[in-house]
Amino acid sequence: MLPDIREATPADIDAAVATLQAAFIDYPLTRHTLPDDGHPERLAEFQRLLLTDIGLPHGRIWVSSDHSAVAMWTTPATDAAAFAALGPRLGELAGDRAAAASAVEQVLAPHRPATPTWFLSTVGVHPASQGRGLGRAVIEPGLRAADAENATAYLETALESNVRRYERFGFTVTAEVALPDNGPTAWTMHRPPQ
């Protein structure tokens, strides 16, 4: 039986960060944009910033009651200035990979929707809990919310194996992008309102 899925509160953040850190520890994009030096700590801080400075105040976050799965969305109401305010701290976390991280943002930006969008910013299932349907369980509330607003859903992934998973939700690939500085390939995916 799956744990309950609910919206996150500040009390969930530490456990959610631990799950995302475990889920993303070898993810090609964060390996490319965060240094090897202190990588686990930088990754955890990056995810914490997303959740506390963007997700809680400006987006929506769903977690499983056991904290083994997390999904964070930005919404059409998310203030872009919130991301800009994080710039200096994100640059510090990127360290000697800051130029690579900036180049990734520049090359992906033209593929991002210009219309009101629900953006699946981060989603992860703890490796010990994968394969049980928890990813689907924490993603679906965001898709329902996007559909209720008649808004497009959007995501980016740097794992080809994820493409088929997201296609099952109704996403389609809109671009396959070779990331600069010998980075991985990224796929941008859109899902029209259902």
From TrEMBL:
The keyword Transferase applies. This is GNAT family N-acetyltransferase. Keywords: Acyltransferase, Transferase. One of its GO terms (molecular function) is acyltransferase activity. Gene3D superfamilies: 3.40.630.30. The keyword DNA-binding does not apply. It comes from the Bacteria. The lineage of its organism: Bacteria, Bacillati, Actinomycetota, Actinomycetes, Pseudonocardiales. Its EC number is 2.3.-.-. It is an enzyme of class 2 (transferase). Residues 3-194 form the N-acetyltransferase domain.
